[in-house]
Design a protein that fits this description.
By secondary structure, the protein is α/β, with parallel strands linked by helices. 30% of the residues lie in helices and 25% in strands. Strands 5-4-3-6-7-12-11-10-8-9 form a ten-stranded mixed sheet, sandwiched between helices. Strands 1-2 form a two-stranded parallel sheet. It is globular. Its EC number is 2.3.1.31.
Length: 302
């Protein structure tokens, strides 16, 4: 959140040089405050788990947030009860005439498909196009990030030789960017995917900034210059146990899968993993809500 300090305090200019959010007294006394309206397009199969992970993060800020859940009309999830969807979710047809302060588009375990072969691709494109004028900022996660890069910027995904699964070290390219406020220069984050996107393609697009990158996991945090599109290729929202449960699930399916890298202590699946990314997860969501949603969204949508 911003700080309001006397206009001529010597520390003021130094703070501004360090990109600390300093608000002038005029704005502080006239700023209207209301709850933020956040829409979550939940494409994950285990919807209730994803709901808990995301709500835990959205609820850990000083801001009041109203959350609504969206599911696809062109595909019905098989891993959640119809009663749950009918009770807590709606479809795009019922929200397309509304405006939202923020939108989260989750990942989906369908990266082996070409985007055009995804059953709900046309519906998702419609939602992404709608978001450009009806949403202040959109946070895309994993496959959702790849879908956004492809649809908005023409950057396609490519298949990896094997599944990228584990917790990897990442480095910031610019710690003064507001989305990374409070991040360590080096931090950890989990990934779980079969595809990736080209760092070179991202760096060559003048509309995008590559904010965090990993030597092992590639491009991680990408944002548009206007802050309206934020793409995170990994799963900072994951609980400590999630990668391990995915690993056990793949083994039961007979998939030839490696032990998630840098995840289990001593790479021993019998040992309980530790969450080494939690603090940066909360920072990312808090920074997104504050700098890219709350400080930018209009008090009244026209």
């Amino acid at each position: 959140m911003p700080i309001n300090i006397p206009e001529h305090l010597p520390a003021r200019e130094l703070l501004k040089e360090e990109k600390i959010f300093v608000m002038d007294e005029g704005r502080a006394t006239t700023q209207d405050i209301r709850p933020l309206n956040i829409l979550i397009l939940n494409l994950m199969p285990e919807k209730e788990r994803t709901e808990l992970q995301l709500l835990r993060l959205l609820g850990n800020t000083p801001l009041q947030v109203n959350v609504s859940f969206l599911n696809t009309a062109t595909y019905e999830s098989k891993n959640v009860s119809k009663n749950h969807l009918e009770s807590f979710y709606t479809t795009f047809e019922h929200v397309k005439n509304r405006r939202y302060d923020g939108l989260i588009i989750t990942g989906a375990p369908i990266e082996h498909l070409e985007f055009e072969d995804v059953v709900y691709w046309d519906e998702l494109k419609q939602i992404m196009d709608w978001s450009k004028t009806n949403v202040t900022s959109v946070l895309h996660i994993c496959w959702g990030a790849q879908a956004a890069l492809y649809h908005h910027y023409g950057i396609d995904k490519y298949e990896l030789p094997k599944k990228l699964s584990g917790v990897f070290s990442h480095q910031l390219t610019d710690p003064t960017v507001e989305l990374a406020r409070g991040f360590n220069d080096i931090f950890h984050a989990p990934h779980s995917r079969y595809t990736s996107v080209s760092i070179e393609d991202i760096e060559q697009d003048s509309r995008l900034q590559l904010l965090a990158v990993s030597e092992d996991a590639g491009a991680f945090i990408i944002l548009s210059n206007d802050g309206k599109q934020i793409m995170v290729t990994g799963h900072l929202e994951y609980d400590a146990c999630t990668l391990g449960e995915e690993y056990e699930r793949d083994l039961k399916k007979g998939i030839d899968i490696d032990v998630p890298a840098n995840y289990f202590p001593d790479d021993d699946p019998k040992r309980e993993p530790l969450n080494t990314w939690r603090s940066h997860t909360h920072l990312l969501f808090s920074n997104w809500l504050n700098y890219y949603v709350y400080q930018e969204t209009p008090f009244e949508w026209e």
